[in-house]
Design goal:
259 residues; alpha+beta; Alpha-Beta Plaits; Pseudouridine synthase; 13-stranded mixed beta sheet; two-stranded antiparallel sheet; 4 helices; 15 strands; 14% helix; 33% strand; globular; disordered N terminus
Length: 259
Amino acid sequence: MSAVFMAASCGGLKRARNVPPPAARVKRFLVPLSPGVHKCVPAVHVLCWCHDTGPAMKVVHIDDAIVVVHKPAGLLAVPGRGEAGRDNLAARVQVRHADALVVHRLDMATSGLMLFARGAAVQRQLGMAFARGEVAKTYVAVVEGAVDGELGTIEAALAADWPNRPRQVVDLRLGKPSLTHWRVLERYTDSTRLQLQPVTGRTHQLRVHLQWLGHPIRGDALYAPLPLRSDRLLLHACRLAFTHPQTGGACTFDCPAEF
């Protein structure tokens, strides 16, 4: 029996058209952000606001293998060292789906899509897909100043800034290789909206790369010069594209930025 393919986004569900598999999208320089419909797998889709003590999260998609959630800015993805019991996205998801396990993370200040695996076997499978670069991640950011050019690549190795943790720094000699593609989406009077695609997944990679480029992300309390021009970090994980670990189907989830 042929599968029925659907698409999921923060706005709802739509019938899917034929699209290239995630691997093909990963190899492209940048994935356009124009509205579209993408393949996903048959599933029970849940679109609901979950109100807890902190900012509300939104469940975008759930099936037998994965949970996709929109994390609001200001909510921890997972508790750090010494933060046991603090409100966080992983704990909220696990209250409703006890088998949901973390696959990747977003900074507390970053909003957008996070993927959870249902069970250890799926977690290993998705973790390997992230490690092999088979998951395409797309972000939107508003950065300070007028960026030169329309698109480009930032290739600058990153390392921990140990005296100033959790900050990271560009260290071309000792740092880990780090690569980010960027493209201008819109220009404003004193800032620029960018589409960002990190090829690697280093801690604070997008924030440090853009600071190093001379255009820190607006509202970045760690890396932007004071005074801050936004009451939040203007960085949002707007798209995830990957191969479904259970069916092998192509999945793309979109969630537009609210800034």
